[in-house]
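Tokens for chain A. Residues wanted.
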């Protein structure tokens, strides 16, 4: 008798457990959405019906500074007045047309300013004594800025409002180690394209470019720093970036190459420079007077080659072709 009772209880428990499992499988796990309960299969419908969403959309920090422009779509809600509410498109003149109140100019205003203008228009037209208006931007056209060159994330940036040049460089991931000391901004307006350069060296705190505003359609270009090659009888031949304010003299270049080797013919060091027409000119460097402080080290230009020959090799103008070929395969070093 006891065995039959135990078997009956176990069978009842198994049937109840199976029923609960089948019910959970058919309805799906229950998920809390705000104050409403919805199954996994009906989350979207339940959320839409209750006016809630399953996720949150972050509002950009500069959204409050967004200025309304032609083409924007605004959602205007007048409290307890559905006939005066609705979505309004900003026309080419920068106006929205309110029912019974007429046109209101909102272009150039941030949403809060446009909201106050609409309230005042309804009050002035004597449609409402104390209108309560809520304005939201439904559609807008963000500013697009292109960043090219030596930045970590080149490409097109989408911004709600114009930002400073320093911010734009930051949005693009900052400059790479190969960046030069000048940033160019290309702007197109009134049918003309202008390009302006701004100094921004490695030692700069960004004060200059923080006051420069980048506008919609602008292109920001960060060129690579100029390269000076030190080849021949030096301890570390290669190319060296002119990163320190874009300047590098012959003494600094030789120092970056860890100096000359014992076999170097220091009395025959030459600088090879490319002319604007593509030809090359070679002129000697008075190394002895330079290291003794009797003469100022000459400033180098981008693509210059400082060639230090071995004692058994004479640096002549005919040797320049071979030196130039060596420069094309030289390793490039950045300043640290």
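Reply:
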């Amino acid at each position: 008798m006891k065995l039959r009772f135990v078997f009956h209880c176990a069978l009842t428990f198994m049937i109840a457990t199976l029923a609960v499992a089948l019910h959970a499988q058919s309805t799906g796990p229950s998920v809390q959405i705000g104050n409403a309960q919805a199954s996994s299969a009906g989350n979207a419908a339940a959320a839409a019906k209750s006016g809630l969403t399953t996720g949150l959309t972050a509002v950009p920090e500069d959204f409050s500074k967004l200025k309304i422009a032609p083409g924007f779509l605004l959602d205007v809600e007048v409290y307890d007045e559905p006939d005066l509410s609705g979505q309004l498109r900003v026309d080419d003149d920068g106006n929205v047309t309110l029912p019974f109140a007429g046109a209101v100019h909102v272009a150039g205003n941030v949403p809060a300013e446009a909201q106050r203008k609409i309230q005042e228009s309804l009050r002035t037209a004597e449609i409402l004594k104390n209108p309560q208006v809520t304005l939201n931007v439904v559609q807008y056209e963000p500013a697009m800025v292109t960043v090219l060159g030596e930045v970590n994330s080149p490409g097109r940036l989408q911004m709600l409002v114009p930002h400073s040049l320093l911010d734009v460089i930051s949005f693009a991931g900052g400059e790479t180690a190969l960046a030069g000391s000048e940033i160019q901004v290309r702007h197109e307006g009134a049918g003309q394209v202008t390009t302006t350069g701004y100094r921004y060296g490695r030692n700069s705190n960004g004060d200059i470019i923080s006051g420069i505003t980048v506008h919609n359609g602008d292109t920001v270009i960060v060129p690579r720093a100029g390269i000076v090659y030190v080849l021949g009888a030096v301890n570390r031949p290669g190319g060296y970036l002119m990163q320190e304010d874009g300047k590098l003299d012959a003494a600094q270049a030789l120092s970056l190459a860890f100096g000359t080797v014992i076999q170097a013919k220091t009395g025959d060091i030459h600088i090879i420079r490319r002319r604007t027409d593509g030809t090359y000119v070679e002129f000697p460097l008075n190394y002895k007077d330079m290291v003794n402080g009797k003469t100022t080290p000459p400033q180098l230009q981008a693509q210059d080659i400082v060639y230090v020959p071995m004692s058994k090799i004479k640096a002549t103008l005919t040797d320049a072709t071979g030196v130039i070929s060596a420069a094309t395969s030289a390793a490039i070093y950045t300043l640290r």
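Helices lie at 2-27, 43-50, 111-124, 165-171, 207-210, 250-256, 287-291, 320-328. The domain at 227-333 is CATH 3.10.560.10 (Outer membrane lipoprotein wza fold like).
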